[in-house]
TrEMBL record:
Domain PBP: 34-272
Keywords annotated in UniProt: Signal
Any single Pfam family the record assigns to this protein: PBP_like_2
The protein, known as: PBP domain-containing protein
InterPro entries recorded: PBP_domain, Phosphate_ABC_transporter
Record SUPFAM superfamilies: Periplasmic binding protein-like II
Lineage: Bacteria, Pseudomonadati, Bacteroidota, Flavobacteriia, Flavobacteriales
Keyword Signal found: yes
Domain of life: Bacteria
Translocase in keyword set: no
């Protein structure tokens, strides 16, 4: 009987030890600076997130798999809970927040930058100025001669949603509006067609891919006149900081992992000093301007 009890106690404690060991190994798989996570990204801001991920991965034992999609596709995938982290140019709406709260998850939203939507035209078009009221009028179906066509990257893009919200329309006109798959397609099409106005995330112009660089010499980046304004402003970092560029938008990383995982670590990185310096260097506007460190020497050699 004593041998049976002894064997029972041995197996009992072995079982507890194995359970604790497995639990620790499971927890060791991911932390805020270690592990692997998929990051859904609004395709219009893909270049800056690629830069951030490259630095983050070189600093920590982490792997972040980027999944660039249109805004609508990001939201659809996000709600299917195939991943817990997303970068968007808007916050979650009430219905989306309710979805996660029903799953006992409280979304954590972190603003990390201010972006701009740029309007571009063919280099052969002499006018480099455009009024926002004309763009919105075109989307409302008002007849005009100033704009021949608008070119978007994707019908489900955040840029389409941005402009339809501004114009107060549910969808874009069936005629005169073109859409492709990527921002690269927009730049290429506008560089080859006069009279077209391209709508693109300015990040693609500040950090162009090799494919886009071939077309940049054939386009103009337009200065935009805001509603009820007299002046025109280009999508520059300074104008974003002063709040004068009329097509500015905030960028957010939204974490719905429900635990302290890599999503939380990357969000902290984006909003931290290194992440903000990367934003500043890119030409976009960081949420917090990083301070400058001055090294003062008492003696000059």
């Amino acid at each position: 009987m004593k041998k049976v009890m002894l064997l029972f106690l041995v197996f009992f404690f072995l079982g507890i030890g194995l359970f604790i060991s497995c639990k620790q190994k499971s927890n060791d798989k991911e932390s805020i600076i270690k592990g692997k996570v998929t990051l859904l990204v609004d395709e219009t801001v893909k270049p800056i997130i690629e830069d951030q991920v490259a630095v983050f991965e070189s600093t920590y034992d982490a792997t972040i798999v980027l999944s660039p999609k249109s805004e609508k596709e990001v939201i659809q995938t996000f709600l299917k809970d195939t991943t817990g982290v997303a970068v968007l140019s808007r916050e979650l709406n009430a219905e989306e927040i309710k979805f996660f709260e029903q799953m006992k998850i409280k979304p954590k939203t972190t603003k990390f930058a201010t972006d701009a939507i740029a309007l571009i035209s063919n280099k052969k078009d002499a006018d480099t100025l455009i009024a926002l009221k004309d763009v919105l009028g075109f989307l409302k179906g008002e007849s005009q001669t100033k704009i021949k066509g608008l070119v978007f990257d994707n019908p489900n893009s955040s840029t389409v949603r941005y402009f339809t919200d501004l114009a107060g329309v549910k969808e874009v006109p069936k005629e005169g509006v073109y859409s492709f798959k990527t921002n690269e397609d927009v730049v290429k099409f506008v560089s080859e067609n006069n009279g077209m106005i391209g709508v693109i995330g300015v990040n693609w112009l500040l950090q162009p891919t090799a494919k886009i660089k071939d077309y940049l010499t054939n386009i103009n980046v337009l200065s935009v006149q805001g509603l009820n304004k007299n002046s025109y402003f280009a999508p520059t970092q300074n104008n974003l900081a002063e709040g004068t560029y009329p097509l500015a938008r905030d960028l957010f990383i939204i974490n719905c992992q429900g635990y302290s995982g890599l999503g939380m670590g990357f969000a902290s990185f984006l909003a931290g000093e290194i992440g903000q310096r990367i934003i500043l260097k890119s030409g976009m506007l960081p949420k917090d301007i990083p301070g400058r460190k001055l090294l003062i020497k008492s003696r000059i050699k």
